[in-house]
Amino acid sequence: MAITYKMTCPLAQRDGLEARVVTSAVFLAVGTGLILHVRRALLRELRQIRKVAGAAQSVLLRPLPPRIDGLSIAAAQLSADHGANIGGDLYEVIATEHGVRVVMGDVRGHGLGAIATVAAVLGSFREAVHDEPELACVLRRLERALARHLRERARAEHPSAGPESDSPVAEEFVTVLLLEIRRDGEVYALNCGHPAPYRLGTGRVEPLTGAEPLPPLGPFPLPAELAVGRCGRLLPGEALFLHTDGVEDARDPHGRFFPLPATLAEAVRTQTVSPQAVLRAVFTRLLRHTGGRPADDVAVLILRNDRSRVQTQQGCTVARQIG
């Protein structure tokens, strides 16, 4: 349009001030229209990309149902990358014939590389929990899957890096917490460098003990013998609070760490433990503490034992024994 105007319009052939003003206005209008058209096209493409990415991420870190095999569940995560739905944190809860099995993990770093590692670990966990009768065997499956993924990633990202130990990918690691909650409420755990969970009761917050810590997956091989820690029984009404280190390591503008135990104690001080209420309390105070944007990925998972409670049609709670 601008070229046609310049070549054919008599006014455009003149050298006077009026002609120059009109010509400048024509070129400005054409340029503005072109910029607006490109902007609309880019916005449509960006919306489509976000839609596809959101669908892929929801499959990778799929939303958990509110109840699984008698356990009430609440979970949420927050990525440190602006515009991303997920980061380097992972969690999953699956009911199996061996009990409800849970994984909570944290991949070193965040971004696309961390998301690929999350996919490898979660994919292996979702298969292994059904195939392996022992929790230790599940952990070994995760270790093999992670090692395979890191080898393939090193070859793809650094084909000329030489030995695998010289590749930057060789320094990647994942902290992992595996739990198995059996039908009688007994809890068993394997912990590879992950923050210890908390046991919550009305007016009570205490660390879950019993699992000897192991190194994170990746840098060092697992020991030949894996001792699964027995953590006691999760009684009806009690809950487990699992989290990644982005929660306790979050700092305010003055450099003070987030007071997680005090926040949990306040959330369960005078009322029955509610997974959703605890989740809201932690995230509300965490976002306020960090000014709305934590510096690291954050993930929280809460499981409450409701197996001895059955709701009647009138909404009253009665108890029953599950064998």
Structural domain count: 2
CATH superfamily of the largest domain: PPM-type phosphatase domain
CATH architecture of the largest domain: 4-Layer Sandwich
Secondary structure category? alpha+beta
Walkthrough of the structure:
With 323 residues, the chain is α+β, with helices and mostly antiparallel strands. It has two domains: 2-49; 63-319, PPM-type phosphatase domain (Phosphatase 2c, domain 1, 4-Layer Sandwich). The chain is 38% helix and 24% strand. The chain is built from seven helices and 14 strands. Helix 3 (112-131) packs antiparallel against helix 4 (135-157) and helix 6 packs antiparallel against helix 7 (275-290). The protein is elongated and about 90 Å long. Mean pLDDT is 82; it is low at 310-323.
Write a compact overview of the structure shown.
With 323 residues, the chain is an alpha+beta fold.
